[in-house]
Each structure stands twice: as structure tokens, then as C-alpha cells.
Amino acid sequence: MRKKKILTVLLALLTLAALLAGCAENEEVGPAAPLLPAQTDEQSPASEPDESAAPEEPEGEEVPEVQPEPQADVGALLEAYLQTGGDAEKEALFVHPEEAAAEAMRRLLARPKEERDALCSDECEAAVLFRLVEELVQDDPAHWEKELDYSYLWERLAGMFQFYSAHYRMDGADWIAENAPRGGSMMRAAWETLPELRLDATACEAPVNYGVLVNARRIFGAVLSGKVQWLADHSFPNAQLWPLEGFSGTETRWTLTQEDSGEVTLTFTPEGENGKTGALRYTPSEAEKQSLCSGYGRVEYIDADGESVSMTASTAEKPAAELGDESLPVSDAEMTLENGVQMGMDYNTLLELLGADAAVVPVNTDCLPVLEKQGVRYYCSIDESYVRRLSYASFRFAEDTDLNKTAVLSVARGIRLGDSMQSVLARMPDRGVTLNGAEYQAVYGYKNSDMDYAFLEFVANSFYSLALNTAGGQSLRIVFAHADNTVKMMDLFWEIA
After folding, report:
1. What distance in Å separates the CA atoms of residue 100 and residue 453, rounded to the nearest whole number?
2. Is 19 in a helix, a strand, or coil?
3. What does the pLDDT look like over 190-209, one tens digit per residue?
4. Coil, strand or helix: which one is 259?
5. How many CA atoms within 13 Å lie on the side-chain side of 171?
6. C-alpha span between 493 and 496 (Å, rounded)
7. Which is deepest, 146, 269, 401, 453, by most CB within 10 Å?
């Protein structure tokens, strides 16, 4: 009995010892105390550790700073889509629709000119880029809807520019930003890439001489695009550039005006917070007013403070002939119609002159819209800058048209439908032309020369035709009636360059 009690006590002691040993092992597993250097007289006591050695403790809990998401490289995304054409790459682009539309437009305008001359295949990069832009823009609430089924990519592109530039001109940048942000982004990219595109789409208020206006736009475009070599090659030997960056965006509105003297002014007016103020002014030479091939005048930049700098062309002092002198060849300026319309005129300016009552003539769907007023029909073509320009005007008697309207306007030197051939030839330099049935007779100048020239033809042993050609590329074809040699019809052309 006594032995059992002793054994019980021993077992209890052993159990307690085991428990104490386990607790000791657990304490040794905990984190070790930091190793401190040995104390010296120059160091602080252990209770006051060196602040330079100890890590800084935050004064309360801080909310981690949210890092902004890195901006997407839309250019890289577009390149990936062009390489693969995959749905995933396209979907990644559409996450950034405005930026994608702008970048695709920049690349589209950089494509070689050779792709403008014919219908692109579905696989060519220009076609891929255009379809991408078109699809992006179609998602705008005010998307572009083509009126006609154009055959060529560049005509469709010109129609797109026409749509957005017209809305911008009429409704302003706020309307574009609210109703067509993707199209507006695309349009801005195009304007910044090709300032001349915006110039040609900016209607001139009451143009006086369109030949001068054409030259002014060329010079303004070269200055805004930084084309020093182009300026040097076009009679500005000491071409200089001015700080004109930032004028092409929609934050700055452009206004184009022409004075009675022919002077053209492009005014920059702020439309947004980043808009800029300034002006470009072009003063033509006297010879230039008669023919846009006679050279150039002076261009001037006026900044927001009214300070100005200018450069003058070497041809600025070229003398001019007397306009309308019947002893001289017909000049480019004389091809201006009574209503102010001139060949090469951009579509917006043409509409400005004709007015809202100009009729749209139904035509074949492969053609651009044809306008009609006072019996004259106006046909437009697309130039290399994707701008609709007036390239052809026809004058007919009512019985020769489906609209039953006779053209009432005169052409160069007051020539009208119904005028006699003798009266027409009397307004030209006298070269002794006779109605002898000759196939070809020179009226003045030489055919296919770089100068003004005119010739009379007897066509198919039936009727006479008179061709008046200018050095600026305009051509007036006059057909005389077989019966009485009066003006039967007239066609005015301009070879768009």
C-alpha cells in the first residue's frame, strides 16, 4: 500500500517535469531577439537605441497610394492588329476607340499615293485601316452615313472629311465633342497630319479671286506643315518658319476671308482652353490675280500680340497685263463666272456661293453629287488631298437637258449661249481665222504648250468647236450649231493637280 502511494507521487512528478520541459521548448521556437552591438561609453544605453540604425516606424496606418494605370500604347495595339487581323487584337483596340480612330487615320494618310489611284484589295493596308476607322466612327451617335456608294476608297474618305468638317463649321467643336467624339478625334488627327486638308475644307467668305485663294492655301499649308523646301522651290528662296504649332486642332477655329484687293487672311480664334490666337495673311502679286501660274506674292504671320514677320516671293514684282484686253489671250481670272464661281473651288466654298437653293441633280451612283443653279451644272472631283473640288461646269439650252433649264450665265469675255461665232472670235487676238472647213486652225498660241493657247476645229465635217486653254490648266470648249454657227453648248474644265 505504501509502495503504491510512493509510485503515484513519482508518476505525478514525472508528468509535471514533462509539461515543464514542453513549455521550455515552445519558448525557444519564438522569434530571436535582435543582435545588438556591444555597448561602449559613446553609445546610448540599450533602452535608447540609435535612431539612425533603427527602422522608421509609421505614425499611424497609411492607406497605400493607388498607382494610375499605365496608358495603353494604342500604336502598338494597332500594329498587332495589322499583323494578325485577329479578333482579340481588334477588341483590345476598341477599348480605346477615340485614340484608335486617330492613330488609324494618321497611318492611313501616310500610305503611298499609289494606293489612291485604284480600288484597293481587301488585303491592302489602306483598305484595312479605312475599314477600321469607318467601324470605329460608326459607333458615334452622329455617325457618318455615305450618301453614295463610291467605288474608290479615297472618295469615301473624302466624303467622311466632308461630313465632319461641315458639322464642325456649322455647329462648332462642342457639337463634335458631344455627338461625334470618335469622328472628331479622327478629324483632328487628319487636320494635324495634313493642315492643307483643313485649309481646303475651310470655306472662304465671299472669295473675290479664286486663283489667288488657291495659291494662298498652298502657301499657308506649306507654312503650317513646315515645308521649307517646298517654299524654296516655289519662289521663296529665304523661306522661314514661324512658331505655328498647335493651330490645327479643334480647340482653334479657322476663318478664311478675302478682300476686294485679293488679299487672303486665315484667322486663328481660340475655341477651347488650349486654343491659340494669330493670323496668316497673303498679299498676291498683280500678275497673280490674272493667272495662278504667274508666281506668288507675300505671306505674313501675325501673332497674338500683333507682332508680324513676313517673307516675299521672288516673283512678287512680276508685271501684270490688262485684264480683259481682247488683243491678249484669255487668262485664268477671266474664267470666273458672274456668280463668283471658279474652277478648282472646294465644295464648301461652292455651296457658300451658290446658296441653299442650289439643286442636287440625280446622277449615277458612281459619281459625286452634281449641283445645279441658273441652268448651269457643277461637277466635282476628288484631289490628292481628299477634297471635293469643282472640276467641270456645263452650259446647255433647255431642250438639251432633262431639267428643261437654259444656262443664263456667261463665261470668259462675256460669251453666252446663242452668241454668233463671229462675235466670239472678235473677242480673241486676230490671227486671220477663216471658216474654211479646216480640221485645225490656231487662234493664238500653240497647242500643248505651257502658255495660253486657243484653236478652232471643224469636227466630223459637221460643226465647229473652239477650245480656249489657260496656263493654269483651265479649258473652255465651245460647240457651235451646225445650222447657224451660234454657240450651242459650252463646257468649262479644270485639270485638278
Report:
1. 51
2. helix
3. 988 888 888 877 888 777 78
4. coil
5. 15
6. 9
7. 453
Rounded CA-CA distance 275/464 in Å is 58
* pLDDT digit string, tens, across residues 18-73: 444 444 444 433 333 333 333 334 444 444 445 444 455 555 555 555 445 456 79
Q: Provide the residue ranges of all domains of the chain, joining segments of one domain with +.
A: 74-193, 201-312, 333-494
Q: How many CB atoms lie within 10 A of CB 351?
A: 16
441 CB-near residues (< 8 Å, 6+ apart)? 433, 434, 455, 456, 457
Beta bridge partners of 479: 465, 489
CA distance 109 to 106: 5
Rg of the Cα atoms in the chain? 39
Take residue 144 and report the three cell numbers written for it: 457618318
- Give the C-alpha separation, 315 to 297, whole Å: 7
Mean pLDDT on 3-16: 46
CB of 448 closer than 8 Å to CB of 433: no
> For residues 355, 347, 193 and 231, what is the CA-based torsion angle, rounded to 10 degrees?
-100
Alpha-carbon distance of 240 to 231, in angstroms, equals 9
Query: Amino acid identity of 427?
Result: R
Q: Name the amino acid, one letter, at 347.
A: Y
Residues forming beta bridges with residue 119, ordered by sequence position: none
The grid cell for 482 is 451646225
Q: How far is Cα 197 from Cα 213, in angstroms, rounded to an integer?
A: 15
Whether residue 263 has pLDDT greater than 50: yes
Distance CA 354, CA 374 (A): 10
Residues 6+ positions from 93 with CB-CB distance below 8 Å: 74, 77, 78, 81, 100, 132
| 202 closest CA partner among 174, 164, 169 | 169
Task: Give burial (CB, 10 Å; 0-12/13-18/19+) of 485.
Answer: middle
8-state DSSP, 448: T
Q: Other C-beta atoms within 10 Å of 134: how many?
A: 18
Strand order from edge to edge, sheet including 474-480: 359-361, 370-373, 376-382, 388-395, 487-494, 474-480, 463-469, 453-459, 440-444
Query: How distant, in Å, are the alpha carbons of 126, 193, 388, 451 from that of 107?
Result: 8, 10, 22, 39
Give the residue among 268, 269, 294 at the shortest CA–CA distance from 281.
268
Q: What are phi and psi of 371, to 5 degrees?
A: -105, 150
Q: What type of residue is 28? A: E
Cell of 474: 483651265
